[in-house]
Structure to design on (590 residues):
């Protein structure tokens, strides 16, 4: 479930990126998931077929780490605490490990839709031969 | 109005017919079927052969020297066969399937003990599309972990389950492994789940594909395609295939040795009993013995005419009508196995197995009427010719011949060799069977099924 995003548009324009980057950094910190040791992809809504399939396709190690992060965050949330500062998710650790798979599955599904909706026409050479 | 394409196409065809005609002037009884008259060639290191068979459809096959005999780890051949026609760098699995469907084609991938075959059947005009598809499968299939776990592994598991329920398959595979141990003896499907839990993985399949799909290890064979056109497309689309195998350890290519022995497997399904002896290699191999084929049809077990028992010795001597007996001479490139498979109720199977050994002793002592021997020889010849005419078998044999660099399979000479088999030759072949070690495999009710020693066989 990838939501529409302005990010590619902004990243293409360095001058715009220089303005928006500090704002984005502030927002990510304020969102609070990094203080619980989560990655952005850990909090994607997963109650749909696409993300469920993407979760199944995760390599075993990544799937294990994801569950670990989720449980740790849940524990923190229950006990009304944040992780010690050195365990917060760092900027370079916050990678889109799941979004890549989701996008792949979405292209697959879009391709299926396209093929279903296809209108078949005779090849030109054959059409001429039939006349 | 005459369409242009038809007008042009008529000319080469007319020329072809003209060229072929002298060969067809032989008498009607001549076995010159033409099914093995393939033209072969080499396009940038890829061996190919074709036969311009007049007709609207083409069968294209890619024969790789990657059967279970040549797999370095168990299950790899099966994995590679299931990975065929899965997503490549350029196309997804779904697109390959849909495009093939739109062209009205059939895609198929299967393996035997010695070869892995990718096969496509389609309308004649679509040749370039399918040669390109084969080129893509060979050089740019994506061996993704999730494709492996979602699609390939499920098929391998199904094959394993089917194998466990099929006692005849179990007995035959067991007899092969008793006879040849490694190499040819490797079971054709995963005999236990170890194969796919321990050895089979997407990266091991990818590694094997770099060996199996290297240019010296496969050949492209077409039935019903113009030779020049096939040569052009093969040269164009197989450029990216690896020129040399990734690993030069040649698993399974050493000369097969016969061992023999006995194995008994308890099973609650149907009873299957296999008695096997060293047989004949294929005609192109070094150990070709035409008398084994005659001996196989002499023992027989199946009728070739409906509602009759037929002439073969076992068909007339089996314990009950419900007992099924088949004798076959399985031929491989450098060895063979003559095996009799008996299935049915345990007591009947036991009795029939005893009879089978007695019959071989009878043949060895020369106690067989001349008439039955002649019938058996005629049937062996017919079977051989019919098998050679069968499109699938011919494609695989031709491709294997190209890959293994042996002489082409000449059907006329095989028929001649069988014609030359004398009663004395069959008698001495039967004698040598009894002197050599047998491979006996019993699956089912072990209380009723006899040991080989009880039948009077040497183990």
């Amino acid at each position: 479930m990838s939501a529409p995003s302005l990010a590619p548009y902004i990243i293409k324009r360095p001058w715009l990126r220089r303005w928006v980057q500090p704002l984005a950094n502030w927002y990510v910190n304020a969102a609070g998931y990094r203080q619980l040791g989560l990655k952005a992809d850990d909090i994607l809504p997963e109650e749909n077929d696409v993300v469920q399939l993407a979760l199944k396709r995760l390599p075993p190690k990544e799937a294990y780490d994801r569950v670990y992060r989720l449980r740790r965050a849940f524990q923190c949330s229950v006990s009304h605490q944040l992780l010690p500062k050195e365990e917060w998710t760092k900027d370079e650790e916050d990678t889109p490990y799941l979004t890549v798979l989701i996008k792949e599955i979405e292209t697959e599904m879009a391709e299926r839709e396209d093929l279903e909706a296809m209108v078949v026409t005779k090849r030109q050479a054959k059409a001429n031969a039939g006349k | 109005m005459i369409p242009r394409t038809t007008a042009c196409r008529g000319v080469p065809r007319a020329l072809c017919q003209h060229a072929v005609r002298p060969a067809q002037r032989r008498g009607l009884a001549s076995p010159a079927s033409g099914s093995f008259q393939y033209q072969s060639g080499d396009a940038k290191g890829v061996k190919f052969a074709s036969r311009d068979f007049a007709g609207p459809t083409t069968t294209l096959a890619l024969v790789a020297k990657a059967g279970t005999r040549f797999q370095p780890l168990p299950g790899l051949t099966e994995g590679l066969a299931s990975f065929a026609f899965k997503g490549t760098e350029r196309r997804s699995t779904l697109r390959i399937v849909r495009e093939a469907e739109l062209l009205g084609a059939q895609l198929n991938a299967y393996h035997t003990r010695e070869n892995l075959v990718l096969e496509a059947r389609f309308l004649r005009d679509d040749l370039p599309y399918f040669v390109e598809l084969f080129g893509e499968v060979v050089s740019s299939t994506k061996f993704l972990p999730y494709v492996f776990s979602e699609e390939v592994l499920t098929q391998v598991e199904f094959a394993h389950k089917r194998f466990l329920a099929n006692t005849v398959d179990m007995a035959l595979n067991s007899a092969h492994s008793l006879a040849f141990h490694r190499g040819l003896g490797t079971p054709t499907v995963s005999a236990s789940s170890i194969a796919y839990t321990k050895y089979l993985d997407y990266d091991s399949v990818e590694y094997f594909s770099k060996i199996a799909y290297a240019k010296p290890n496969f050949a492209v064979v077409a039935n019903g395609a113009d030779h020049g056109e096939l040569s052009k497309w093969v040269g164009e689309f197989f450029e990216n295939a690896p020129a040399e195998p990734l690993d030069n350890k040649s698993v399974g290519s050493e000369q097969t040795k016969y061992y023999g022995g006995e194995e008994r497997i308890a099973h609650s399904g149907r009873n299957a009993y296999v008695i096997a002896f060293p047989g004949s290699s294929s005609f192109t191999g070094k150990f070709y013995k035409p008398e084994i084929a005659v001996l196989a049809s002499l023992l027989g077990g199946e009728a070739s005419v409906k509602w009759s028992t037929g002439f073969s010795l076992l068909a007339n001597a089996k314990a009950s009508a419900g007992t099924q007996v088949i004798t076959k001479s399985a031929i491989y490139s450098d060895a063979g196995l003559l095996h009799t498979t008996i299935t049915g109720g345990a007591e009947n199977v036991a009795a029939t197995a005893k009879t089978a050994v007695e019959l071989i002793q009878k043949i060895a002592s020369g106690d067989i009427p001349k008439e039955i021997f002649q019938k058996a020889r005629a049937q062996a010849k017919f079977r051989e010719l019919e098998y050679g005419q069968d499109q699938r078998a011919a494609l695989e044999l031709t491709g294997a011949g190209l890959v293994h660099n042996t002489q082409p399979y000449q059907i006329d000479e095989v028929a001649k060799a069988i014609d030359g088999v004398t009663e004395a030759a069959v008698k001495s072949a039967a004698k040598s069977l009894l002197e050599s070690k047998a491979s006996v495999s019993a699956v089912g009710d072990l209380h009723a099924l006899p040991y080989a020693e009880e039948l009077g066989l040497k183990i």
Notes: The interface with chain B takes residues 56-57, 59, 108, 111-112, 115, 120, 125, 128-129, 131 of chain A (CB under 8 Å). The radius of gyration of chain A is 22 Å.
